[in-house]
Design goal:
alpha/beta; Purple Acid Phosphatase, chain A, domain 2; globular
Amino acid sequence: MAKSFHKPHAFCLREGGHHGDEKTIQLGLWGDMPYAKNGDGTKDGEKMLSLIAAMNEAELDFTMYDGDTKDGSSFCDDAAIGADAKSFFNRLQAPAVYVLGDNEWTDCHRINNGGYNALERLDYLRKTLFNTPYSFGKKKIRLEHQGPLGQAYSENIRFAMGAALFVGLNVPGSNNNKVNEGDCLSGKSARTQKDCDEDNAEYADRNAHNLAWIKETFQTAKARRYPGILFVIQADPGFDWPETEGVNERKSLPGIDGYNELLDLLVDECGAYDGEVVLVHGDTHYFKIDKPLLDATHLVKNFTRVQTFGSPNADWIRVTVDRKSPNIFTFEPMMVDTK
């Protein structure tokens, strides 16, 4: 039997005027799996098959994966971060959009990850997984990329569907690849001071590109009157530090300062935007939906944080995007029977 071929669908950002697509869409959010080494001694391979089957049965318009295609204590070889990840994404019927995590590159300097150079791994991922204009999945959509295909910042993507813009950003855990003084050298790491200096230069340049991509997205949403924007990153940027009067722990404690500029920009841009803004991330594996910015007396009402499930829980979140709803985005946790 001849294999069927699904021609990629192109969802372009329209030039000017009111965005007229009233279609209600549904997408799936997932990430932080499969892990070969879980705290409970299990592996995720068989769970992943049940999860993918569940998302396929849901007949989604697309899915977005928020990073960590492997656990943080296994080798970052080409198969683990490349071919194996691609094979899972391409089992999905719907288009699958991939956002990078720290386990795929930032943390690969660790001895138990193989002692790789993090920037070499990032370069490999760009050349291998972001070298076409399309998503993964059996059906595909065309994505807008910030950088040339297969090169720097090709992993930062954007597309429009229904009432919203959807954006993927390379913002990984481990402080966004920012290495603070005293955190570089370790018996558990193969990196040198030179490697850390290069990591910090990489962070500074990528952070500037991320901020520019965010600003451009808000400009596009306002100019073309999209009422919603959904951003996907991998890192938990430290929303859950306890806030005490007069002290913002998120900014004052070490190890999460690599996200300060990004969050400050989101606060500013949300204040100048009439629509809804969602920031999706993984990293800490607990399902959460809240409004963590800035604090109880300075609530950014149009900003919502969504944290996805992660290993060992192979579950996902269904998102409905409906222009006619009082909330453009609504969320439903979808629990998968993996027994």
